[in-house]
Design brief:
The protein has one domain. Helix 2 packs across helix 3 (70-77). It is an alpha+beta fold and 81 residues long. It has helices at residues 20-25, 59-68, 70-77, and strands spanning 13-15, 33-35, 39-46, 51-58. The protein starts with 12 loop residues before the first strand and ends with a helix.
Length: 81
């Protein structure tokens, strides 16, 4: 299972590293860490199709669906016809 949002296409990023102050003074390693988007498993009802769809979506994607509508957002993502 990929850790990518189907609506907003958000994936993981690598965070961490060195601050500029640390770089200027001495070597002080900080571990890099992979950060994943806030994905939620949701069942949404699509009234135009009269059926439920299971998706794994980020919280930002949920806000997008609320703003633009469920059917149009899922259709743009290619999840429904």
């Amino acid at each position: 299972m990929q850790k990518v949002c189907v609506i907003s296409n958000k994936g993981s990023i690598v965070g961490g590293g060195y601050s500029n102050r640390t770089r200027a003074t001495k070597f002080n390693p900080t571990g890099k860490k992979r950060k994943y988007p806030n994905l939620q498993k949701k069942t949404v009802f699509v009234p135009e199709l009269n059926k439920k769809v299971n998706i794994e979506i980020s919280t930002r994607g949920m806000r997008t669906m609320k703003k633009n509508g469920v059917y149009s957002t899922l259709r743009k993502a290619g999840l429904v016809k």
